[in-house]
Write a structure and sequence with these properties.
heterodimer, A: 146 residues, mainly alpha, globular, B: 206 residues, alpha/beta, Double Stranded RNA Binding Domain, Arc Repressor Mutant, subunit A, 4-stranded mixed β-sheet
């Protein structure tokens, strides 16, 4: 969960989002109705990550606009190669970033990712694959530039 | 050839938060949940001569004791029948932990803890456990005797089943119930544990 939120909002805000997520989950537990608990909590976490971004920016934002990238310096304490990955992940659109983070930071199965994102297992698989392709493109481009 | 593959992404993102940070985040969350009144069942683990057990309480009182041979998952699953809002919160169990310590040190012969009977079966099973709770320290009874006190002397098997499902062992002293002829009999925590508890109370049948 903390790993997922780090990928979504950066390490600085991840803890706050973590608190918000679990408090909200505890309050809303009765409404979980049979969904996979992990996927359900991740749905809340994702919403909290988006809320947090909006609050940070302190200005109205159209619904479909995505949270901004995590600044590279916020990835803190990570080697160059890892930093590259973090930066590339931060540069993804919110939907792909959420899919990538659910798969690789939270280690969810595609079925759960689908539940968390509100799409089918197949669509979740595609979104992760698209995200990976996008990451690969970004990182290769960065490396080619050197 | 790209150096970016799923494995590398997984390694980098998977290392995003270490266990210590996660534990700290959980601790802060528990503080906040407690402040906001979101915890319905608090639990804690206790160390004892028979191993590490767990104890849980609701607002009403002690709701369950997990003997050391009970997995945490089973312990939590049982509590899940009452509420999903369960958190490890030793601060909420200070008194229970103190009394359990004293009991295992042989210094306490009676628990002064309020009990929450909601996990105890209704009907005959409930009667059996309530009768069992009245048995004084170091005093034993047979399954037949406890069945009789619960209102049905012939239901000693049912009494055994009820005792086997005792959600609050030690505090509701089902270890004090023996088979006829002072034979040790079964125990959820295993016969060695039963023998240990009876020996502690100076009531081990020879």
């Amino acid at each position: 969960m903390l790993g997922f939120l780090r990928a979504m909002v950066g390490p600085h805000d991840a803890e706050d989002a973590f608190q918000e997520t679990f408090v909200a989950a505890l309050r809303a537990y009765d409404r979980m109705d049979g969904r996979h608990p992990r996927a359900w909590v991740m749905t809340i976490a994702r919403r909290k990550a988006i809320d947090l971004h909006r609050a940070r920016r302190r200005r109205p934002e159209p619904r479909d606009e995505l949270p901004q990238a995590v600044a590279p310096e916020e990835t803190g304490g990570i080697g160059d190669l890892d930093g590259e990955v973090w930066t590339a992940v931060a540069g993804l659109g919110e939907g792909q970033r959420a899919a990538i983070a659910l798969r690789f930071a939270a280690d969810l199965a595609y079925r759960e990712i689908g539940e968390a994102l509100g799409c089918s297992e197949e669509a979740a698989r595609r979104r992760v694959a698209d995200g990976l392709r996008e990451l690969r493109r970004t990182i290769d481009r960065e490396e080619a530039r050197r | 050839m790209s150096r970016v593959d799923a494995k590398r992404i997984g390694r980098v993102l998977g290392a995003g938060a270490d266990a210590e940070e996660a534990a700290e985040a959980v601790r802060r969350f528990a503080d906040r949940a407690d402040r906001e009144g979101l915890i319905e069942i608090a639990y804690a683990s206790f160390d004892s001569p028979i191993g590490v057990g767990r104890v849980a309480a609701s607002e009403r009182g002690i709701v369950s004791v997990g003997l050391p041979n009970m997995a945490e998952a089973s312990f939590l699953e049982q509590l899940g029948e009452l509420s999903p809002r369960i958190l490890e919160r030793p601060q909420r169990l200070d008194e229970a932990l103190r009394e359990l310590d004293q009991y295992f040190d042989g210094e306490r012969h009676e628990f002064e803890l309020a009990l929450d009977w909601r996990l105890v079966g209704r009907g005959f099973a409930g009667k059996v456990l309530r009768e069992t709770a009245k048995l004084p320290y170091g005093v034993t009874a047979s399954y037949g005797e406890i069945a009789a006190r619960a209102g049905n002397p012939r239901a000693y098997r049912a009494a055994g089943t009820a005792l086997g499902h005792n959600p609050i062992p030690i505090v509701v002293p089902c270890h004090r119930i023996l088979r006829a002829g002072n034979v040790l009999g079964n125990y959820g925590g295993g016969p060695e544990m039963k023998a240990f508890l009876l020996q502690l109370e100076g009531a081990l049948p020879s």
